[in-house]
Structures are given as structure tokens and as C-alpha cells.
Amino acid sequence: MREPGDAVGVAVAGAGTLPRYGSADAAGADLTASEAVTLAPGERAAVATGIHLAIPPGHVGLVWPRSGLAVKHGIDTLAGVIDSDYRGEVRVVLVNHGREPFTIAPGDRIAQLLVQRVERATFASGPLDVTGRGHGGFGSTGR
Q: What number of CA atoms fall less than 13 Å from residue 59's CA on the CB side?
């Protein structure tokens, strides 16, 4: 991503803030909420960030959970793919797997954004090659 033209454009609206890396070697840039939301246990919501992104072609934005929120409160992210041609507001789908309501305030860090190169595949119908794993899935390779 350090090539010319690979910068991610950001339009900030309202209470939104620019994504920001928490340390020099952080892989993900923190995304913050631009609205107040309370998630009851088991509830999910698409939380506004107040930002719109222009991710360079050939890249994707991936929204990942913040480890501290996951460990301490059971807060996780869902549906975290931002295509390079999407220009709408970035909203972070959060789910509360915890036992207590979780309150988010504007400016709270709620997720992290990774911007990565994408390889587009070509899909072709036909017979598949045989592998040692075969049809095994969901734990078939051991514990």
C-alpha cells in the first residue's frame, strides 16, 4: 500500500474521525463510532462511523474486532468487507456476545480496518482434483 496512488481517501461527516493506527506496527487502523448505541446481550447493530472511504482498486477494506472489546465484553464484528467501489458510510456491524448491556459513545473505538490487496479469482465449472482431505470439514483435520 505504500505505492503512489494507493492512499485511502476519507470523507468525514458529522462526528466521524479519521481511522488511526494505535502503534507504529499496528496492522489495523481504529474505527470509531459517530453515534451512541447500547447493545443488549445477544443484540446486534450497524454502528455509524461518519466516514466514507475511497479504497484503491485492487484492494479491500476488512473490518475486524478489537481484541480488548472481544475479551472484556464479548463484542464482535460481523459482515466486514468494504469493496473498493463502495462510497457509502462505513457502518460496523457489532454483536454483543456478553452477559451485560454494552454502551458505545461517539468517539469510542469499535473495530479496526485492515486494507489489503485482493486477488480476483476466475471460476470454472468441472471436476475437482482429489486431495487427502477430500470432503472433510469442521474439525476433520484434528483438534
A: 18
Within a domain: 37: yes
Integer angstrom CA distances of residue 35 from 17, 46, 58, 141: 12, 11, 31, 43
Other Cβ atoms closer than 10 A to 90: 23
CA distance 114 to 14: 23
- Total Cβ atoms within 10 A of residue 113: 24
* Residues in a beta bridge with 20: 30
Question: What are the two backbone dihedrals, phi and then psi, of residue 79, each rounded to the nearest 5 degrees?
Answer: 50, 65
Q: For the domain that residue 20 is a member of, what is the CATH number?
A: 2.70.40.10
pTM over 0.70: yes
Task: Give the model's confidence band at 134: pLDDT under 50 very low, under 70 low, under 90 confident, else very high.
Answer: confident
Query: Range of 100's domain?
Result: 9-117
